[in-house]
Structure formats: C-alpha cells, structure tokens
Amino acid sequence: MPDSTAPGHLPFTLDLTLDEARRRAEVVAALGPDWDPVAALQSEEAAHELLYSGLDAEQRRTYAMLVEAGVLPGRGRDAGDAPSH
Fold it and tell me: Across residues 32-37, what is the average pLDDT?
C-alpha cells in the first residue's frame, strides 16, 4: 500500500457498516417469518449425526484424525455411536 503522505495522494476510506447492516436485514427478511433458527440448527446437527453414523473402525479412526487436525468439527460422542440408518 502506498504511503498516504505522498504528495498528490489523498487518503480514502469507505465505511461499509451501514451496507452490511442493510444486507443482513435483507437476508433475514428473505428468510421469511416462518424461519426458525433453532429448528434449522437442530436439523443441521441431526444431518451431521446421520452423516457420520455407522462408521466402521477404520472410518472412525480417519474421522478422529480429521477432527484432531481441525479439518472436521468435533462431536459430543464418538463417530460410531449414532444409530446407523
């Protein structure tokens, strides 16, 4: 970034705070009045449980390795404890 004190250069700043607040308000409005964030989170957690349920021993080791490396988020229980569907 060039030195802002150089001759012929004027500092320029742009505050996007109001635009970001407007964007967020539009997103929430687009979701509609029936959107339930708690139900959405519960559905996400149920999908996560289902995705990693029924893993065999090798898959559980790989999952644990990826969680430990920070590649995947951890869970409250071991990857193979959820019922298989």
Answer: 93
Average pLDDT over residues 26-50: 93
Which structural domain range is residue 43 located in? 37-73
Based on the structure, what is the number of domains in the chain?
Answer: 1
Q: Which two tokens stand for residue 29?
A: 């409005």
Look at residue 61 and tell me if it is in a domain: yes
Q: Give the count of beta carbons closer than 10 Å to the beta carbon of residue 67.
A: 15
- Taking Cα atoms as reference points, which of 37, 54, 38, 45 lies closest to residue 74? 45
CA-CA-CA-CA torsion sign (68, 74, 75, 76): positive
Residue 69 inside a domain? The answer is yes
For residue 80, what pLDDT is reported? 45
Summarised one tens digit per residue, pLDDT across range 47-61 is: 988 988 999 999 999
